[in-house]
Please model this.
Amino acid sequence: MLLRPFLQRLGLGGLLVAFGAVTPAVATKVTLAQAADGRWQWLRDGAPYAVRGVSGHQFLEQAAACGATTIRTWGAESLDDEVDGVNLLDRAHALGLTVLAGLWVQHPAHGFDYRDAAKVEKQREEFRAAVRKHRGHPALLAWGVGNEAELGAEVADDRLWQELEVLLRLVKTEDPDHPVLTVLAGGSVAAIHQLQRHCPSLDLLGINVYGWAPVVSHLLDDSGWNRPLLLTEFGPRGQWEVLHTPWNAPIEPGSVEKVMTYVASHRAVSSDPRCVGTFCFTWGYKQEATATWFGMFLSSGEKTPIVDAMAHEFTGRWPANRSPQIYSLKSALALDRVPAGTEFTAEANANDPENDTLSYDWQVVAESTDRKTGGAAEAAPPVIPDCIVGAPGPKVTVRTPTQPGAYRLFVTIRDGQGGACTENVPFYVLPK
Model:
């Protein structure tokens, strides 16, 4: 009986199941209830449970160390991903994390036709198989039935909402011990009204929202939603919410602004008595508009100041070693049309809380041309060689590319202790 906690402290709890060291833990019954003070809360086997969530399943040890309690996935296939030699659910359980398990509802915007009876039935069977496979796992918290499935669909078209109720009811029938939710993109009064009208099986509502997350409570009030809410994604202002250059390049928020937006969104929504948890996005890295817009980590694995800020929100404490922070990135080429093959200076002003020695990496990258909607996977644009003149440091000389077009100048600053920060500015090279 002493083997389980010992291995879990070592981060090897998945081996308990893999090697049959002990009998796997039994499933936990999860419910939602309204407390005496009016706040909604999770109950796991009758005990209150706080959801401090991260969206994604990379860097799970860091998530647990930062005070997160729950991770979020989007599709059932992720539950079978191998993490540190065991499947995701086992690894999460070994680290003391629960999982909001996503079941991907096909989008009309991606060509799925809800009038096609064969496709609709196939999706139902896939849901049934996934729930039966994973419903008994002790790391399971709830089922996320769909993510932004209404994108590209007519909100007034009842077919999607009616089928969503079928899927919600199917999941609840197969697994009555875990709540079910669906996730809206940004949320709208019309979409919430459709859920209220067509989806009585819904236990709680998930909303993905970015720049205007602090006003989510007003949206819920206007729509008459008085049941539990999860903020299933929040983060920086999205590329659809910011100013664009004259050549239509979105201007990515700076490092300091991102931290402030994450903290403000988390605090504002968490204070609503309907809120039963928030999930910062994305706990990992991804290419979307740029390689750095939404990632809380770099592709090379370093954490950014956003991770530190969320650790402080979750635990009230800062990490032992904090990431450096960029306070300004200045260059005459920023946000301008400039000649090809011309040299400009660029300078980054940064600070490290522990005064660690900082290294600087500067790159010129082509503007992304593989732009998608709804968070779909994008191809990374190429790095342009031979644009940085001399040794990199806080101040460098940048030679603009010889080919005309849209580009970005990136600086990435690392502290050598697993922390980093990054910022970029767009510019446009004129034809000769």
The chain is about 25% helix and 25% strand. The CA atoms of residues 128 and 173 lie 10 Å apart. Residues 325-429 form a domain with the Immunoglobulin-like fold (CATH 2.60.40.10).
